Amino acid sequence: MKITRILLFSALLMLFFAASARVEADHSNPSDYQAGEESDTTRPLNLSSLPAAGQNVVSQAVLIDFSKTNIVTKADSGINDFSGNMGALNKNGISYGSSRLVCSKGNSCAQQLKWDFSIDSDREAYTGIFYSLFGLTDTRTTFDGTTVGTTSFPEHSLDLDRIDGQLIEPDGPRKFKTLRIQLANQGTATVTLRVELKDTKGGGRFSRFRISAVTAKTLIWNFRDSSQYRTVGGKDLDLQKAKILSFVIERENIGDKIKNPLKGKLAIHKVSYVPDRTEVEPLSNAKLLDLLERRAAQYFIDWTSRKKDSLGIPQDRSTFGDLLTVGGIGFALPAYIISAERGWISRSAAISKTLSVLRKLDDTSSFGATPMGRIGYKGFFYHFLGVDGKRKLNYDDPATPTREDLNTVELSTIDTGLALMGVLAAQSYFKGSAEKEVEIRSLAQRIYNRVEWDFMLRTEAPDANRFYLGWKPNEERKGASFEIPDAKGKGKYSGTSANPSTLDYYTDEALIDILLAAGSTTHPIDAQAAYCALIKTPDENKLIRTHPGALFTYQFLRAFINLQGVTLPACPGEGAANWYANSQKAINTTIQYVESNPPGFSTYGPNAWGLSAAEGPDDQYRAYCAPTAAIGVPPQDGTVTYYGMISSVSSGTSLKTRAIQALRNAWKRKDWHYRFSLPDAFNDNISQAGLAPVEGNPLLRKSGPWMNRQLFAIDQGPMLLHLENARSGLIWNLLAKNRNIKRGLDRLRTPLENSLQEEDREGEEQER
After folding, report:
1. Which of 223, 274, 384, 724 is most buried by its number of CB atoms within 10 A?
2. Under DSSP, is residue 406 helix (H, G, I), strand (E, B) or coil?
3. How far apart are CA 224 and CA 293, in angstroms?
4. E strands of 409-481, at which residues?
5. pLDDT per residue over 628-658, tens digit each?
6. Nearest to 333 by CA among 559, 552, 516
7. pLDDT tens across 670-705, in order?
8. From which residue to which does the signal peptide run (predicted)?
9. Residue 355 confidence (pLDDT)
């Protein structure tokens, strides 16, 4: 398979217009950032182009801004910047209206929620809008493939007194003081708007605001001041578990002398929190990187499952509470390590989170060849899990044009490899004698030993010794081909007999799997044969390209293993590859392409070169890359990722400087969010992207700038690990000491038969 990262879209229930929509020793000093050694692939940077530091301030935490750049599709309109959904509130009323686009003559588009409400004449009728303040309210799920129910997420709420949760802030907890709402009454009559905060336990506070006809206003509500609120039903708001913000138009309230028109027009422009202190761009580069690393670690505190059956397993993305990622486990477990080592969370909290994940991965009853109720098979894991901790099951939604329940999740070689890297990092870090740390080490080894690597290794020529991308049990399905039967007839591998989907070209993911499989003592493979089976022919510039060419395909392995100074044997007809230098060359090749900018995209430039996998402005997944770094024909539409640039921070001084430049430029562009730091991707002019209509998720605009505020585990994770490795080498050092990794590297250098004989001799010597 030529594009190696696969994102599977789950159905996400968003109560948007009352319909369903698609929608990881003490290193606490921030000055200890170190870059890796240079290779001859790095390029000098003009330091005079660096933006001035310390001049940018963020004083609001935006919940949703309809006038800004996030919203391109209808699904975007139903999700806010805190990854919460939005929907309608009605009693005997008509849905509040629709989100409409307003464009000026210069094709400059601004978004506002046009709330054209209509209320039933019943005195108790009302209509309104709600925003979930942190994560989803609920979504449709199935755990048996037949019965569809609703799963809610009350565990994910916003602590208004400690908005960063358990993450320890250097200047003490941050809190929100007030709400700031920018809106306009575009109707002909005065409207009384009820603004309400509710928690997950039924308590709440509200206040009312009168808005005159044809008036634009900014409402500031101090929900902490008892003179400015009343409780909901006599039950006060729990400030530590806030969940819903509502705007309500009541038909009539006789006791409070409220009477609203039956019809009206409101426009919501922007809703934000006002915190107790501003966030200022740090003057020091070290402190700037420390701040970003802290925020990247925050993802794995915010967006990991809090359900009992899947506790600690990360969400694929911040907006999908029911879609958990196995590959993301590989970054979540190191995130817990980094957070404990930095003092951002306690060591006991890191141990608890780690044990929860490992115990789930070690559950032998969850492995089997049946389509439902399993976490994996033959030691491998499924790509995505549900909140029950088992294979993610979809369902047939009437609003879905195709049979969603047939788009099944595959047993994933790549995601299993990523997860095991995190598992082995935890094994090396928790080396104490306490019972729980001993258990972590034991669980990690059992999980690693259980993987039957040869099960996913193709034996037929010409693709022999290459890993299949995936396997699925026997079941009815659509989508990508899985037509190659396994030896026991339990399921089928990815691809067709004429075109098997394997890890054929070099990519970091393939090297991760080969290294792990090489180190196995229970199911070892011929590591050199698998390594030499990869297609890795240098181009005219001596770059060994991955097929997709996206930066993540050159950055994943180095997030875990420092290959600087590590040489692997040459394969027949090939020279020995320096993978550290190759990744640097790939990054610099991408930078050179972007700076020359043959397509003429507005976004491309010296501070916008992170071409890597992302969801574009139309919510479609693409492995963006430079053609000069890819073998295939790459997608390009001007979209750039921040994580692709920041993940280069550990690849030498020059690339570290470029990453800092890109980060400072993000502050200058006002892309930095008070709570969630950088967006995942951005595009300064989507009119150059050639966006086409998307079935079931129509486009609201085709021009103007765009950014993606939803966050992804496998984007935040590499960025976090590279930041820490550039700073201390923590994850590199842990895995360099891990006996399984050391064994794998040794076997890659030595024929399998010789290495097994040598290990037997070492074992006998240790016994003596």
Report:
1. 724
2. helix
3. 32
4. 411-412, 470-473
5. 999 988 899 999 999 999 999 999 999 999 9
6. 559
7. 999 999 999 999 999 999 999 998 888 888 888 889
8. 1-21
9. 98
Residue 663 three-state SS: helix
Average pLDDT over residues 133-152: 94
pLDDT confidence of residue 749: 83
Q: Are 231 and 187 in contact (CB under 8 A)?
A: no
Contact of 519 with 552, CB cutoff 8 Å: no
∠ CA 341-733-518, rounded to 5°: 130
The DSSP bridge pattern shows strands 621-623 and 613-615 to be: antiparallel
Q: Which two tokens stand for residue 400?
A: 């879905």
267 near 112, Cβ under 8 Å?
A: yes
Q: How far apart are CA 235 and CA 533, in angstroms?
A: 66
Dist CA 211 CA 224 (whole Å): 22
Question: What's the CA gap between 335 and 643, in Å, rounded?
Answer: 16
DSSP state of 463: S
How far is residue 679's CA from residue 682's CA, in Å, rounded to a whole number? 7
What residue ranges define each of the domains in the chain, with the CATH number in brackets? 12-26+282-744 (1.50.10.140)
Confidence of residue 590 (pLDDT cuts 50, 70, 90): very high
Single out the residue of 579, 507, 583, 566 nearest to residue 744, CA to CA: 566
DSSP 8-state assignment for residue 83: S
> Which residues 6+ apart lie within 8 Å of 561 measured at CB?
515, 732, 735, 736, 741
Residues 322, 139 contacting (CB under 8 angstroms): yes
Half-sphere exposure of 482 (CA within 13 A, CB side): 25
What helix, strand, coil percent values describe the chain, rounded to 5?
30, 25, 45
Residue 224 contacts residue 179 (beta carbons within 8 Å):
no
CB 251 within 8 A of CB 89: no
From CA 348, how far away is CA 343, in angstroms rounded?
A: 11
The angle that helices 347-361 and 435-450 make with each other, rounded to 10 degrees, is: 30
The secondary structure of residue 608, as a DSSP letter, is: B
Exposed e or buried b per residue across 44-71, where buried means at least 16 C-beta atoms within 10 angstroms of its C-beta:
ebeeeebbebeebebebbbbbbbbbbbb
Residues 529-570 have pLDDT tens digits of 999 999 999 999 999 999 999 999 999 999 999 989 887 889
User: CA 62 → CA 79, 342, 454, 525, 590, distances in Å?
Assistant: 12, 28, 50, 51, 33
Cα 402 to the chain's mean position, in Å? 26
H helices of 454-573, in order, are: 508-519, 527-533, 552-560
Phi-psi region of 365 (alpha: psi -120 to 50; beta: other; left: phi over 0): alpha
Alpha-carbon distance of 288 to 177, in angstroms, equals 25
DSSP summary character for residue 18? T
pLDDT band at residue 305 using 50, 70 and 90 as cut-offs: very high
The helix/strand count (H/E) of the chain reads as: 16, 33
Residue 307 phi, psi (nearest 5)? -80, 150
Whole-number Å distance between alpha carbons of 546 and 103: 41
Q: Residue 88 carries which side chain, given as an amino acid letter?
A: A
Place of tokens 């030595």: 750
Q: Which residue has the tokens 């308590």?
A: 203
- Joined together, the tokens standing for residue 427 give 């094994």
Three-state DSSP at 298 gives helix
* Total length of the chain: 768
Nearest to 410 by CA among 390, 384, 386: 384
Of 644, 616, 740, 691, residue with least CA distance to 7: 616
Interatomic CA distance for residues 599 and 596, integer angstroms: 9
